[in-house]
């Protein structure tokens, strides 16, 4: 095991408002106080990460090489498969941290990791809403589906998702005036936004309100849209006379709903519930489910769905 100790001072702004000359370093606790659990966690995390990379890469290759899959549903899915980048933004660092006694990370690395994670996270929220709209049009108005969901609209929906996510996450994070008062211990596996936010001693009331507004816009609004879309889908399914057709639709939409429930359930519990100044073990577990489980299971869940 390697011992790494951070400097005692940090770069940025201290309590007296003066700039120090050294860079801020944070200690990431994670499971460092439980060596046996940390070894088991490392093995499980490594296996999950490899499965995530292989599964999502396979989905992308299949979609690229099979012309029959060049339809809007799989176009959105190919974008969604890029959430393996979301896992990659934090998991390699967590794996390395499991191999050292005192894992540390600089403020610059921490901010980059946090901004990247938030960005890709919000992209997935918006893409899931776009996929729900695609399914709603395909099932509710199948005769006009190809006319409504053309390449232009699909490109517009995905382009808007990636651009809006950048403006709502990366820009606010990089402009946030963070000040730290000597509390440089992050009780988490990685630089999660809320874990770092709790360490700041600067006045972040505006950014707290901004975070709530952004969470409502990127979590509750897409989730409400998805629920409404699947409500229309349910009405259309109940009007079908063919039992086989109903089963096919339920198979396809059921896979989407599993991902939505898993992803939005953990996200809302993390960002929309009342927060305190303490990072609990449950926060760490939810974060890992959010970062690891959903990207890992997406290829399996969606591959079980049937095209309509």
TrEMBL record:
Ranges that cross the membrane: 39-64, 152-174, 216-237, 249-273
Subcellular location: Cell membrane
Keyword Zinc-finger: no
Membrane topology qualifier: Multi-pass membrane protein
Superkingdom to which the source organism belongs: Eukaryota
Gene Ontology CC, one term: plasma membrane
Database matches in SUPFAM superfamilies: Family A G protein-coupled receptor-like
Main localization, broad class: membrane
Gene3D superfamilies (alphabetical): Rhodopsin 7-helix transmembrane proteins (1.20.1070.10)
Keyword entries, A-Z: Cell membrane, G-protein coupled receptor, Membrane, Olfaction, Receptor, Sensory transduction, Transducer, Transmembrane, Transmembrane helix
Nucleus keyword on record: no
Database matches in PROSITE patterns: G_PROTEIN_RECEP_F1_2
Name of the featured protein: Olfactory receptor 13H1-like
Organism from which the protein derives: Pteropus vampyrus (Large flying fox)
């Amino acid at each position: 095991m390697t011992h790494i100790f951070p400097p005692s001072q940090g770069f940025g702004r201290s309590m007296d408002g003066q700039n120090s000359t050294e860079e801020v370093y944070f200690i990431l606790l994670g499971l460092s106080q439980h060596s046996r659990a940390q070894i088991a966690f490392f093995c499980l995390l490594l296996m999950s990460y490899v499965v995530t990379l292989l599964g999502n890469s396979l989905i992308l290759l299949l979609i690229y090489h099979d012309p029959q899959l060049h339809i809007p549903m799989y176009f959105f899915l190919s974008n969604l498969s890029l959430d393996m980048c979301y896992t990659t933004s934090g998991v390699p660092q967590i794996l390395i941290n499991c191999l050292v006694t005192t894992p540390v990370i600089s403020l610059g690395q921490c901010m980059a990791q946090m901004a990247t994670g938030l960005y890709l996270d919000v992209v997935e929220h918006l893409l899931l809403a776009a996929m729900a709209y695609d399914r709603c049009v395909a099932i509710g108005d199948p005769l006009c589906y190809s006319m409504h969901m053309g390449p232009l609209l699909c490109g517009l929906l995905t382009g808007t998702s990636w651009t809006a996510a950048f403006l709502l996450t990366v820009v606010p994070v990089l402009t946030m005036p963070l000040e730290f008062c000597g509390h440089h211990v992050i009780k988490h596996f990685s630089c999660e936004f809320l874990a770092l936010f709790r360490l700041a001693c600067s006045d972040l009331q505006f950014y707290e309100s901004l975070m709530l507004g952004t969470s409502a816009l990127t979590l509750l609004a897409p989730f409400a849209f998805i629920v409404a879309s699947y409500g229309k889908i349910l009405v259309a399914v109940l009007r079908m006379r063919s039992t086989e057709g109903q089963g096919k639709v339920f198979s396809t939409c059921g896979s989407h709903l599993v991902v939505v429930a898993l992803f939005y359930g953990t996200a809302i519990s993390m960002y929309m519930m009342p927060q305190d100044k303490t990072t609990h073990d449950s926060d760490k577990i939810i974060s890992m489910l959010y970062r690891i489980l959903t990207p890992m299971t997406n290829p399996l869940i969606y591959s079980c769905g049937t095209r309509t």
